[in-house]
Amino acid sequence: MARTDPPLDGTEFETLSGFADFLRETIWLKTEGLDSAGLAVTLAPSDMTLGGMLKHLAYVEDYWVGHILLGREPAAPWDSAPWDDDADWDWHSAADDSPEQTRSLWRATVETSRTDFPTDLDRISARANSRGMHFSARWVLTHLIEEYGRHAGHADLIRQSIDGVTGE
């Protein structure tokens, strides 16, 4: 997968979604080609893995776009995840999945988010979060950019520690 630069002269929606896609593609490139062992590598002192990161980001997409913004019930596997036993289940359960399962889950969730995301950035979320707050589509899209941007930096460090791969 090659990264697509965000548009230089797009609408607000095109620009923000372009940056979200650019960062999604960055995460993909940082995890591309790794087997189960590669996706399970940690970089001390963190227990963060690239496989866990992909699964976490799939959860973030489903939670913020599907559940909060669009009002859907959580999709599988989030709907039956043992969150009470492990609040970080999305991060930790990736070790139980094959690389193909993890990548497929992430890709499918991203595609659903891309396809269903409203272009009206003033749209207010169908659901509130646990603190009773509703969000604009603009806020949700900006949050996705922040989430991916933060984890792209983590992915750079972890990937370099695995096989020396650096850069874009």
Automatic annotation (TrEMBL):
SUPFAM superfamilies: DinB/YfiT-like putative metalloenzymes
UniProt cross-references to Gene3D superfamilies, sorted A to Z: dinb family like domain (1.20.120.450)
Any Pfam family: MST
Name of the protein in its database record: DUF664 domain-containing protein
Organism: Nakamurella sp. A5-74
Lineage: Bacteria, Bacillati, Actinomycetota, Actinomycetes, Nakamurellales
